[in-house]
Design goal:
alpha+beta, Rossmann fold, 2 domains, 11-stranded mixed beta sheet, globular
Length: 324
């Protein structure tokens, strides 16, 4: 027979066609020994999963369109955030005790417009170029802030000098292997002091589709999702860095967004496209903070009294338990 002519299976005119091998139901892609074949099969499996998910989504949409107003309400997807374990320190907006504490705490003069924020931004000893540029850009975000590069001067000596020069807050940017990795925020003159782990730092030149340099207008401040007593304290510390009367003509906004105890900082400018449409343009820098400790008073690593310390082995037992 010619090569192009085929023969029916089982007619005895040629070898039978090989049957397709079916994997058993318990077969796993990880059992394939060949790395390239395993990767290929995994990609095919992922592609099939996406097709099935998309087909199910289209089917449900058609069913909802057919039912019209009688369609059942959409199910709320389960996320770690909305499955959060209830925290007994969650603040009620109408709680009189919380209102009294906030009216008499260290930040009350700022919220009563009796104190104008004045910030000193400094670094760890002998910072490298990336940390220096980050401090300079942070100073353009926070109004009335000044950058000081310390060389071997201890923080215990810097703090009295800051108080004598009427600084209200001290920000220290720490680095490791030339990368900013920590932030210490101390409210002067009596504290408190918060220590954060810093990650995902992006300078302005590293942000895609960034806007022009920020102006000197006082920005708006947005604090999202700081719901517990600890979260309120941290949120008030961030708010006290900015003047209480923003200049809306500058269209600039600084956002501290708390999600799963990670604080994401973004700096944007509003872009009014029309009377109804508003866009935002990121100016930078951006970074992420994770609270490590909250200390009473000013910075004191040896004899300081801590209000809260993050203990991983004791506090991170549940993925749905958050503290801010």
């Amino acid at each position: 027979a010619d090569e192009g002519s085929g023969s029916a299976p089982g007619d005895g005119s040629g070898p039978p066609a090989p049957e397709r091998v079916l994997f058993p139901p318990t077969f796993s892609v990880s059992e394939i020994k060949n790395k390239q074949r395993r990767h290929f099969m995994f990609l095919r499996w992922k592609q099939q999963q996406r097709k099935e998910k998309l087909a199910l989504k289209r089917k449900r949409r058609k069913e909802r369109e057919a039912l019209g107003d009688k369609a059942p309400p959409k199910a709320v997807p389960k996320t770690i955030e909305n499955q959060r374990v209830y925290d007994e320190t969650t603040v009620d907006p109408n709680d009189e005790e919380v209102a009294f504490d906030e009216a008499t705490d260290e930040f009350a003069p700022y919220f009563n417009r009796q104190t104008v924020p004045k910030i000193l931004i400094t670094t760890s000893d002998r910072p490298r170029g990336r940390t220096v540029r980050f401090c300079e850009q942070l100073a353009t975000v926070i109004p009335n802030s000044h950058v000081y590069y310390r060389r071997g001067l201890a923080l215990k000596r810097i703090i009295p000098q800051c108080i004598a020069r009427d600084f209200t807050d001290l920000i220290v940017i720490n680095e490791d292997r030339k990368i900013p990795n920590g932030l210490v925020l101390s409210h002067l003159p009596d504290g408190p002091t918060a220590h954060f782990r810093m990650s995902s730092v992006r300078l302005r030149k590293e942000i895609k589709r960034k806007g022009k340099e920020p102006t000197e207008h006082v920005p708006e401040v947005i604090l999202n999702n700081f719901t517990t007593r600890l979260g309120h304290s941290i949120g008030r510390m961030f708010a006290a860095l900015f003047p209480h009367d923003p200049q809306f003509i500058g269209r600039q906004v600084a956002t501290f967004h708390n999600q799963r105890d990670y604080i994401f900082f973004r700096f944007h400018r509003y872009i009014f496209k029309s009377e109804k449409k508003v866009g935002i343009q990121e100016l930078g820098p951006r970074f992420t903070l994770k609270l490590r400790s909250l200390q009473k008073g000013t910075f004191d690593s040896k004899f300081g009294e801590y209000e809260w310390i993050h203990k991983r082995r004791e506090m991170d037992t549940s993925r749905r338990k958050f503290h801010l």
